[in-house]
Amino acid sequence: MFQQLGNWVAFDALGLEPASALAQAVQFFVMDTAKIFVMLVVIIYLMGLLRAFVSTEKIRQVVAGKPLWMGRSLAIGLGSVTPFCSCSSVPLFIGFVEARIPLSITFAFLIASPMINEVAVVLLIGILGWQVAALYVLAGVVVAYVGSVVMGWLKPERWVEAYVWDIKARKMAEQQALQSGWQQRHVFAWHEVKVIVKRIWHWVFLGIAVGAAFHGYVPQAWVTEHLADAHNLWSVPAAVLLGIPLYSNATGVIPIVEALLNKGVPIGTSLALMMSIAALSLPELLILRQVIRWPALAWFVGILALAFMLVGFGFNFLFH
Predict the structure, then answer these.
(1) H helices of 179-266, where?
(2) Where does the chain cross the membrane (predicted)?
(3) Which residue(s) pair with 160 in the sheet?
């Protein structure tokens, strides 16, 4: 549906030549803008309804006292079975923060959710075999767990934007919704949508615009030419950097990985690009910046980028 919308705007409404870089950029921008905003609205609304039925205080009480390793493991499990992209994971991240769930646990979910899902695993099995798919899932779990541990050591709560903690008015509205019927709960959930989308919409547009420009004006041949040498130590870091301006979920990026593999790009380099696109996309980072300050965002990017490079080098070594 979103792809058809992008095609109609770029090729029919604007009459652009389908093979041109501008047409590809416009098609990508329209398609991803529609897709991301629909997912944001739906997920924020559902999170609002959940909070209108189950108070954040009750969620906090359930989590309180549990060992952190258990909380991280549950968060990774939840992230692995929810088919969310990186951008649509952020509203859930905000909900977890507001529920006073430790940030080391919320980061475990934020890392695991876009990287691992059952559809992507099935597709990977079909392309690379179950052994490689299993190793990819294991790598994703390890990256999510270790990354969340390191983020926890840094005490990231000090870098959360003040408005996230300042929820007195929203807490009162939440309590009113908990004691009311469906209409009041709907009003509360829709208010959450308007508040969050109003805060982040321009950053979403900016991130998608950068990704669209990259998608339209950087040819795949150029990417494969510079990533195909397994002996080039810069190929894996370059793959991680190239993935940041792009945006897709793990399922959507697998065809790109398959094309790169067919062009001779090493498996570790291809998977490093896949991880970067799925979990370090620029739209996600710009949205996340509205929740956490620059130091936390820099650490988050640095930890994941290093982890993806290590995974890429490891896969290249194992399967060279």
Answers:
(1) 182-217, 220-227, 235-243, 250-262
(2) 36-54, 74-97, 103-128, 135-154, 200-218, 267-288, 297-319
(3) 292
Q: Which of 212, 203, 287, 294 is nearest to 247 (CA)?
A: 212
Q: Is 169 exposed, middle or buried (0-12, 13-18, 19+ CB in 10 A)?
A: exposed
* DSSP 8-state class, residue 9: I
Of 298, 51, 36, 306, whose CA–CA distance to 192 is shortest? 51
3-state secondary structure of 160: strand
Residue found by looking up tokens 């905003």 in the block: 37
Residue-level length of the chain: 320
Question: CA-CA distance, 34 to 45, in Å (whole number)?
Answer: 17
Which amino acid makes up residue 172?
A: M
Q: Which residue pairs, CB below 8 angstroms and at least 24 apart, start in 19-24?
A: 21/216, 21/217, 22/216, 23/216, 24/215, 24/216
Q: Domain coordinates of the chain in residue numbers?
A: 2-319
* Dihedral pair phi/psi, residue 287, rounded to 5°: -70, -45
For 209-245, the pLDDT digits (tens) are 877 787 778 776 766 676 766 567 788 999 999 888 8
pLDDT tens, residue by residue, 81-119: 766 666 667 777 777 776 778 888 889 988 998 888 777
